[in-house]
Amino acid sequence: MRARITFATVGLCIWGAAVTYALAQSPEEGCAACHDQGQKLATSAHATLGCTSCHSKHGEYPHPTGLPKPGCAQCHASVAGEQARSAHAQALKEGNTAAPTCPVCHGDAHELKSAVSAEFRKSVPEICGTCHTETAQQFQNSVHGRAVAKGIPAAPICTSCHGEHSILPPTSKASLVHHTHVPETCGQCHGNVRLSRRFGLPEDRILSFDESFHGLAAKAGSQSVANCASCHGIHEILPSSDPKAKTNAKNLPATCGHCHPGAGRRFALGPIHQVNGRDGTSPVQWARVFYQIVIPLAVGFMLLHNLGDWLRKLSQRRLRRRPAEATPEATEAPSSRPAMRILSFERLQHAVLAVSFIVLVWTGFALKYPDHWWARPLVMWESAWPVRGTVHRIASVVLIVTAVMHVASLIASRRLRQHWKLLWPRRADLAEGAANFGYNMGVRLRRPILSDHSYVEKVEYWAVVWGTVIMILTGVMLWADNLMLQWLPKTVIDLATTVHFYEAVLAAAAIVAWHFYTVIFDPEVYPMDTAWLTGFSVRKRPAESEPAEPQEVSQEDRAEPEEAAPEVEEHDSVT
Q: Of 281, 278, 289, which Cα lies nearest the Cα of 211?
């Protein structure tokens, strides 16, 4: 018996010495003497690592007792930190033992595949599907899932949209699939020009979305506006040619109807993704071309006209130079009592109009350019409450009320109507405008005498009338977009959007280039013509209102201001 114990002890000592020697010479070979993980490790992503890289203090035999099991965080600290903040880790902390950990997704540490390998990438939907079965089935049937099944390396998988380790619920603002980040997430592929060209995809989908109302509102922080997933779906994304696709022409009324009830039921909805200046139906294109020609010409004429006027007056009034070839036609004789330029009720209308116009311009362009500093005070609240849109609509109602008030006052008050007749266009206005423009440009040496209410005031007034009518009509159509989409083709909405924007650009530029010069920057009235406050202008007026070219003006036109002048007095009222 003792002999057997002795032999067993000696054998065990010899075997231990051999293992210790083997560990000293090659730890991996020594581990293989007892553990069969060596073959698995040879084909895994950890093949280049030695056993002791993870299993520290295991180089001695017998192994010390109580050694902790190695964790992934030993080498992957940053990744472990991301995973600890993820929805999976939070679920694990809340007691959900089925929540995935590193081995659940990556497999055993001795046989896991490289995360960048085509084999692992293709297996991701299946791995996620072990918990998210229904979602995985939808993805596999989608255009993305089919591409993954074909082995296309660039095809998106679950982690492409949701992230890899820092997966967060869609309700989290930091999530890649939170509705404010969806366009950016989709843009990783659909905003990649090289990738789009490689697979024959449209290159402008993200750009056209960003330029649309949906994109602009989303960029400003709107919580309810539609994004890519609202129209194309989330996991069940299909090509538009598929009858089951949400973006199929037959399904658009139902898809758009989630936000716009009844849209497209009477008329087919037009193209959705449109890039300004390149896409769109013929009416929209014509409107763009029209404004792209008119705006530079009109604003350019205003700037050139007023620059010449400013240089002339600066030379004559500020530098004390004598006007070239001054004639009686250019002399000014102020009357003993200044004439009332703007009646009190007109001043009230002007004040309300000015406030509403400024607010409309500010809030309207804040939608188009939400990233600029002047837009931030409006859009910073967008995630909680649509401040910008609400203020814009309130200002639009004020503008509409002002327009109605103006028309009603002209109907009700003879005195206001007589004053308004002074702004009615005449044939002589063209001659006056041409003569004065020629003088400002240096073509004429003599300064023409303008009518008491010249083409300058008339251009201002009728431009306001035209712009107000256009902005109200198009604005109401955009405000009532659900009703419009029920009864009219989408092209009409697109046209209203285009006209509304370009007309706003033209109106804002005209106010700055024309009206502000007349009221503020004109050397004759600088720093301000106070007529809009007091009714009386500081501008010196000629003693007689004569047109620039007397020989071309009829007697009827010459007498018109004189007939209306007695009606313009301080004692005004609306009867």
A: 278
